[in-house]
Amino acid sequence: MIPSFPFEQMLGQLPAGVATLVGPDLRYGFINDRMRELVGDGQPGQRVADAPGNLPAVLLDVLPRIYADGSEYTAKACTCGPQHCYDLAVQPFHDEQGQVAGLLLLALDVSEQEAARQRAHELALTTRHLDARLRVLTETAPLMTFTTDAGGMVTYVSPQWYRFTGQPPTIDLTAIWPLLVHPDDRLRVLYEAEAARRTGTGWSYEYRLRRFDGVYRWMLSRALPEVHPPDAPVFWHGALTEVHLARELSEARRRGEAELRFLADSIPELIWTASAEGLVEYYNQFTIEYTGLTKDELGPTGWVGLLYLHEQAAAARRWVQSVASGEAFEGEYRLRRHDGVYRWHTIRARQLSDANGPRWFGTCSDIEEQYRLRQVLQTQYDELSRAHHNLDTFVYAASHDLRQPTNNLRGLFEELRRAATFADPEQGLMLEMVDNALAELDKTLLDLATTVRTQRQQQEPVEVLDLGLLLEEILLGLRPEIMQRGARVDVNVGEAPGLRYSRANLRSVVHNLVSNALKFSHPARPPHILLRSYLTPDEEPVLEVRDNGLGMHIDDPAHPVFQLFARQHAHVEGTGVGLYLVQRIVGSQGGHLAVSSTLGEGTTFTIYWHTPAGGF
């Protein structure tokens, strides 16, 4: 037997709001729990107009008309209250005589569905906006975009493609685009595109595409699949970028590098290139032939390992400093040939910075013959220079010192004229002849000294000198003495690298000071000489020569420093002329020579050069 349930109990369990409005006054009859969310505190017997709850006003307006004409009414997604949305339906119910007895009001909560619909609507609007924005970006960018499907059919190309190829928009893209690819590239392009679609991957390759004027231009084609796991890709989206100029530049660069490499291999000189870190990456063919080693045997530091053993450490330090600072590298070193013979080379390296970053380009030039000739010439020059200065000094000193005896003789003859008489009738003539002879001798000596002084000043032209290079030349001439005594010579001219002065005079000054420092070195320690140039606060150039030798008496009158033929260390061979000449040369150009010394510890000479018009 089927159990029976009261009708109102069944309506109360419905998942929708149900209420009856009875009589023409539309008074509440039955109200289930779901309908309470709408009618609020409305109770049976109350008019709906007096207790509408959250029922929309538009519904309250139509309820009397529905009751009057017996029609039905439906309202979708009506907002009822601040948070809910309902589908509302109203239909009349009749009494036993068939007359409208009231209205049945049904309400279904569709708040979640309406919210989802609203979100879907907003998402659709956003998608349309993004799609429009993306289309604007792709159709204004300087490249051609496209879309293909898994079957290779082209479903979209941007307007740039039509403008580039000159094809009409009505053309069959899938059929025409392979025909626009250069015949030499066509099969490769079709194969690579098909392989990418088959494996579900992207592609990136270059090919030539025919332009509207019939000219083929290199293009870069790149595409990626649209992936929606776990399904296989259906569409590939990509872009075409013209790379014709870049490709031509790359080809030209490759040809240029090949030509430069051929040229470098043809030059009979050691040529190499190194990375930004100073590691050698390339040797020309002549380097291989000269050293007798392969590129692998030479390695990234090849030329350093080929240097004379005692020069390797200093050269490596200089090379590391150049790599760190970016400054040019240059020096003269002995380099081992394939037969084991060491020959002098000038090693130079310069840094080049471009789009690929810094790189080093270097050469090793054989200067063995020039080096030996320079040594011979330097020796001869130094000998001639010393002879010239010695002769010059002797003439000047002799002319100066002989004037005093001449003056003494003149005084004696003057006294003789007053105090003595001679019976010789030619007395007057004889005395006059003696006076004339003494006067002539004095004039000759004075003219000789003036001539030497003037000649010194006129024969030495003034020029702008590279102080570092000139000091290197002087030290090269003194190399045998330096090596014999195991001396260490440091040169620091970075603060004042140039000097406007006479080359010969500067050579003479520095040569005398350095040779004296070597000659008067302390027997208990190896000589250490520092040559340093700098600027005074008044921008005046200064050269400082410092040694750790025997030292001198500076303020002792019995041991003069700059007097001609004066000597403080008689046990050391010398003439006592060098410092005298240095002072004369410096003073003749308006400069000043200062000396400070501690006996047994060393001496420092400071030369304050005169700055002529034109500056330093």
Automatic annotation (TrEMBL):
EC number(s) of the enzyme?
Answer: 2.7.13.3
Residue ranges of domain Histidine kinase in the record: 397-613
The record, for PROSITE patterns, names: HIS_KIN, PAC, PAS
The record's listing under InterPro entries reads: HATPase_C_sf, HATPase_dom, His_kinase_dom, HisK_dim/P_dom, HisK_dim/P_sf, PAC, PAS, PAS-assoc_C
**CDD domains under this entry?**
HisKA, PAS
Catalytically driven reaction(s): ATP + protein L-histidine = ADP + protein N-phospho-L-histidine
The PAC domain covers which part of the protein?
69-122, 329-379
Which keywords does this Swiss-Prot/TrEMBL entry list?
Answer: Kinase, Phosphoprotein, Transferase
- Top-rank lineage group of the source organism: Bacteria
| Ranges where the PAS domain occurs | 256-298
The answer on whether this UniProt entry bears the keyword Kinase reads: yes
- Annotated GO MF terms: phosphorelay sensor kinase activity
Q: Name one Pfam family in it.
A: PAS_3
The protein's matches in PANTHER family, at most eight in alphabetical order, are given as: PAC DOMAIN-CONTAINING PROTEIN, PHYTOCHROME-LIKE PROTEIN CPH1
Name of protein: histidine kinase
Upper lineage is:
Bacteria, Pseudomonadati, Bacteroidota, Cytophagia, Cytophagales
